[in-house]
Amino acid sequence: MSTTRNTDAIKVGVAGIGAIGRAVCRVLLSETGIDGYVLHRVSDVKSVPDVPVPNVDFETLAKECDLIAECLPAAQVPPLADAAFAHGRDLILISSAALLLYPEILEKQKGSGSRIYVPSGALAGLDGVKAMREMGIERALIASIKPPKGFEGAPYIIEQNIDLGAIKDKTLIFSGNALDASKAFPANVNVAATLSLAGIGPQDTQVEVWADPAAKGNTHEIKVSTRFSTLNARIENMPDPANPKSSVLAAQSIVAMLRDMSRAVVIG
Ligand SMILES: NC(=O)c1ccc[n+]([C@@H]2O[C@H](COP(=O)([O-])OP(=O)(O)OC[C@H]3O[C@@H](n4cnc5c(N)ncnc54)[C@H](O)[C@@H]3O)[C@@H](O)[C@H]2O)c1
Fold first, then answer.
1. Which part of the chain is CATH 3.30.360.10?
2. CB atoms inside a 10 Å sphere around CB 203
3. CATH topology for the 2-118+250-261 domain
4. Which end of the chain is more exposed for a tag (fewer CB within 10 A), N or C?
């Protein structure tokens, strides 16, 4: 088992053992594992008997692990980041909306020696966006389309008193910039936050959120343009059976990032 396979391996701590964190643990614990990385500790408020490493608090996680993979609700990211920065640990951050919602995270990171890595999550096309940023992005738009029940509990749905059950056709339920979208749908629009961080920032990245009863999964379409290139990318993700607000792809983007960190040749 990879928990004991290599004592020189980088010790990974996974914070949040829900749909995404559990999937990352499964890969780290699998027979093949992730070369150079070992699951060392996890942190979840619930007990996680299926993950055979100690379940510890954020402080212990940061103290005892070399690298932290965050898979928490966005609201729990600030205390985890505090602990990681206090110990100079790098942080893989899947809840990218937290960087927009809690800008103090980036302030506190300064001088800590910690790096933050944001994986592509449920999105595709960020490789192109990063290169286009160097050319000067003129426009960045993301449209996210999900079944109405995927938005249950979002602050915007509650504040606007939107009856998700009454939506019978594909409906635009939100249009605004990535900052406002993150406040409105903190658990749904990490993709918009990630696009904005890779591209032209949260104020200038346009976001559309669509509820579609006919949608079988979560679709994200991005349109990014510069003077010389136009990018149109669309990804269709089936909802994660463990959490319909998430996509299986998001967990695998963390795994892919960990694999890249140990590769001699990195593509993209
Ligand atoms: N970047 C992306 O494209 C993308 C895509 C999907 C999901 N996400 C985000 O990833 C994050 C995780 O998603 P998920 O589907 O695994 O969520 P989940 O709800 O299935 O799991 C979250 C876990 O965190 C645990 N938790 C809550 N508070 C905690 C605390 N204080 N300390 C320790 N553990 C705590 C919960 O018990 C739960 O097990 C969410 O913020 C989600 O919005 C990002």
1. 126-237
2. 11
3. Rossmann fold (3.40.50)
4. C
The answer to whether 182 and 101 have CB atoms below 8 angstroms apart is: yes
Q: Which two tokens stand for residue 80?
A: 């985890």
Q: Which residues line ligand 1 (CB under 6 A)?
A: 16-21, 43-46, 71-74, 76, 94-96, 121-123, 187, 190-191, 194, 243, 246-247, 250
Is 220 annotated as catalytic?
A: yes
Q: Name the average pLDDT for the chain.
A: 95
Tens of pLDDT, residue by residue over 40-93, are 999 999 999 999 999 999 999 999 999 999 999 999 999 999 999 999 999 999
Among the listed residues 114, 220, 226, 245, the single catalytic one is 220
> Does residue 3 register a pLDDT over 70?
no
pTM more than 0.90: yes
* Cα-to-centroid distance, 15 and ligand 1 (Å): 9
Q: What is the pLDDT of residues 220-263, one digit of tens each?
A: 999 999 999 999 999 999 888 888 777 899 999 999 999 999 89
